[in-house]
Amino acid sequence: MNEKLIEDYKKFLTNGKTERECVNQIVELANKAGYKNIDDVKKLKKGDKVYINQMNKAIALFEIGSDPLEKGINILGAHIDSPRLDAKQNPLYEKDCMVYLNTHYYGGIKKYQWTSLPLAIHGVVCQKDGKIINVVLGEDENDPVFCISDILPHLAQEQMKDKASDFIKGEDLDLIMGSTTPENKKSKEEKNSGKKNILKLLNEKYGIEEKDFESAELEIVPAGKARDLGLDRSMILSYGQDDRSCAFASLAAMLDQKAEERTTCCLCVDKEEIGSVGATGMASNMFENMIAELIDRCEDNYSELKVRRCLANSYMLSSDVNAAYDPMNSNLFDKDNTSMLGGGVTFQKYTGSRGKSGASDANPEFIAKIRKSMDDAQVRYQMAELGKVDQGGGGTIAYHAARYGMNVLDAGIAVLSMHAPWEITNKEDMNQLYQGYKAFLLVK
Q1: Phi, psi at 258, each rounded to 5°
Q2: Which has fewest Cβ within 10 Å: 35, 173, 206, 238?
Q3: Closest CA to 421 of 113, 18, 80
Q4: How does DSSP classify residue 210?
């Protein structure tokens, strides 16, 4: 077991609860490893290492190999966004002596799992003068935390009759920010005194006004550190392991594996949990623009055809997690085609749902090439699907990369309680994933 890898991974999770925080950590580690911002580089040659930062919410690292880029590159592509709650643009309000932050959930969550938990606020507030204020509230032991209230069992008879998907409404996922007392409501002058007090405290701490919420990006996430799970400490319990487990393993492999013939890439993107949309998502032209920047610096005669050839000839592991087999819910899984905690790297030939809708279906020739690289490196792996055929399913960024014509295969680890506020992974799986990604970067 690579104990340093595991401790570094837990630190990455603890300090990277938003996309911006992950990018900040990646840039810091890349700089230490000799990578340069591509904006500071005019020409590239074999051995050069650069990164491209997309709006501080997506990033790609490249190490230039000896082959021309149009022969293709090896890409580890993960996402660094996770299900959460986002503050609305006009979020702060007071209701019957309680002050709330109005939220909108992001990605696929079970809404009831987010009540009665200690929560933290992470993000940025951007002011009109260009100043960007980083916000982290609820993580320091001296910080207050926040939560969403729920109904006590004594009064929940009607609530308990609803379906689990209905008994907590999206509009009810509002964060308790503070309170005041009924005595303070006796005069008109005291109206909204609780909200005014919260705004005063925010101004004292961060120098922000209520209108600054309009240009803020505040994410509500579980408060607390990544922790060892189990008396044997064989597992990790943390928020955001989908998909920061694969993002971290991709980064670690990229920093530790020297490129040979083929240029190598670690790509960490945003918005996968809501369809890879926007300027920082894989459905945009972001990645092909990055490749164009590389070719422009590596080749004397830039052409769009070289960009297209590079993309089409590339290999990619869509570095994303899979659902771990759950013995307590075994009826949801085809046990012969599922991923087990401790089983090593999980490969999925196809994702999608039911009749493979929304899938990226990898070519068997490419899978055979990947199998050989894993076996040669003595990496433990398993082939799996996400649950039984008609139970549901899920997707990754793979099909967005496949539209370029490149070979893509999903490869990650198994996660128990995926998309819950606290997710479970196995330490040995992380170790195998790191080794497997290193082996892939050298595939020809």
Answers
A1: -75, 135
A2: 206
A3: 113
A4: G
